[in-house]
Amino acid sequence: MTKSDKLLNALAKAVNAGGGIHSATELAFMLGLPYDPAFRKFLADCVNKGLLRRVMKGLYESAITPPEPETAIYKIIKKLRSGVLNYISLESQLSHTGDISQVVMGRVTVVTKGRSGCFDTPYGVIELTHTKKPVEKIAPNLYYDPDIKMYRAHKAQAIADLKHCQRNLHMLES
Fold first, then answer.
1. In angstroms, rounded to a whole number, what is the distance separating the alpha carbons of residues 33 and 66?
2. Burial, 87: exposed, middle or buried (Cβ in 10 Å; 0-12, 13-18, 19+)?
3. What's the predicted TM-score (pTM) here?
4. What InterPro entries has UniProt attached to this entry (predicted)?
5. How far apart, in whole angstroms, are the C-alpha atoms of residue 61 and residue 39?
6. Residue 94 has pLDDT above 60, yes or no
7. What are the sequence ranges of the domains in the chain?
């Protein structure tokens, strides 16, 4: 079995287990190979052959068994800032709950305990906004959304985040 075949086999198994977006180091681990320049060249070759798609720097998906398009962006968010609290808030959450009339398309606004940043992916733009608030103050105002496997802010928290970030409040319905 070639290295490319082993990669496709590992990716197919990962999709069955709920995966779909993988870091380059995870792919090396799945194949039992060291993450070194030769492996990075192998990944670039797989992208050029159309076996993998680079969704952003260091993150890949299988071109043959890609993740569900509806949830792929949330998987990318979790890979971007793993190990810290991330939750959907600001305009994305208020649009989701119907508290603003505008439908946010092609962008997800996320509040994170990690670094801020804006990332362009094939599934849309991910806007991460850092918060200094302690987790103990934020956690009671969040709920888990099993469809996206991430936390979301309750309306009051999303509005508080909007005010804290000094974002446009004119779009609020009430």
1. 22
2. buried
3. 0.86
4. AbiEi
5. 16
6. yes
7. 3-67, 83-164
